[in-house]
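Hey, I'm writing a tutorial for new members on how sequence and structure tokens pair up, and I'd like a real worked example in the thread rather than a made-up one. If someone can provide the structure for the chain below, I'll link this post from the tutorial.
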Amino acid sequence: MSAYSSQYPDVPIDPAIQRFFETFYKLSDTPDAHQAYAELFTEHGTLIIGSKVSKGQPEILAFRQVMWEHVASRSHKPLKVFPFGQHADEMMLYGTVGFGMKNGKSNELDWAARAHLVKEGGEMKLDYYQVYLDTAAQAASR
């Protein structure tokens, strides 16, 4: 069982989606995996975190690099994934994330996210991912 495994309700879901999210959060926590992270999105995918909107892989890559400027370590715990029905490609997620800042401070926050996945070239990719978290609490760690 992976450190990034989540609980899912008892509904049919493509196992590729479960594997995708394990990879996604592992790469989210890997400081130098900027390009690999951006490639988990479709070419024109959307990433929204708080009020910051990034559209397309180049913007997602640039935002991903900025997200690590003050962060030394990040540890996601995706606790639960709620698919929208059987064989869904849209879901809500809930978890926690711990941050170790470069200034020595640390913090842990709850988050929720809305995700929509598509198969592209035989691989799962996000075409929409929006994270809901308390950005004021996150900023206090800087």
